[in-house]
Design goal:
single chain, mainly alpha
Length: 177
């Protein structure tokens, strides 16, 4: 297993710790646990950039890494969104939109691979991931700040829809329709 893949595995392992500390924060009321949650989320988010850099810089790109890295990103952000949704800080419709986009793009990639085409991560998808992670960090840093929550939700929804539409427009031919 490459160093990049090991870092990705650490990110996956951090997700349960993040969830536990989120629940210990009792909806953001315990500042200490919320700050620990924020710290875990920030470190886990940064490993996304570190493992990508290592994979590219040291030629450690593997099929396992191509599969696990985006899955780890999705699990991390969806875990945070699900907790915020449960607490009433993130609307369920927005969470459903994010889930729908993720399943649709993953399905598109699977169909493309079966047809011999690999769809690389697009710039808009990277912007979506980065803005989502930054927005969720802001929500963790300032829990319960309604205006911030709505701004973050708006940014996440806009980048999610834009990147999803872009993936399908640029790769429509992969569906063989």
């Amino acid at each position: 297993m490459t160093t990049a893949s090991k870092i990705t595995m650490v990110r996956v392992a951090m997700i349960p710790a993040f969830l536990v500390t989120m629940y210990l924060s009792n909806q953001g009321e315990s500042r200490m646990w919320m700050l620990i949650s924020l710290g875990i989320f920030v470190v886990a988010s940064l490993t996304d950039f570190v493992d990508g850099y290592i994979a590219r810089h040291y030629n450690q790109t593997t099929d396992f890494g191509k599969f696990l890295d985006p899955l780890a990103d999705k699990l991390l952000v969806l875990a945070a969104m699900a907790v915020f949704c449960e607490w009433g800080h993130f609307p369920a419709w927005a969470l459903m939109l994010v889930l729908t986009r993720e399943f649709a793009v993953t399905g598109l990639r699977l169909v493309a691979v079966q047809n011999g085409t690999v769809i690389a991560a697009g710039w808009s998808g990277k912007v979506k991931t980065a803005s989502t992670m930054l927005g969720l960090c802001a929500m963790l840093a300032f829990p319960g700040l309604d205006i911030l929550n709505w701004v973050v939700v708006a940014v996440i929804v806009l980048t999610t829809v834009y990147s999803g539409v872009e993936y399908f427009i640029q790769n429509w031919k992969c569906l063989g329709l």
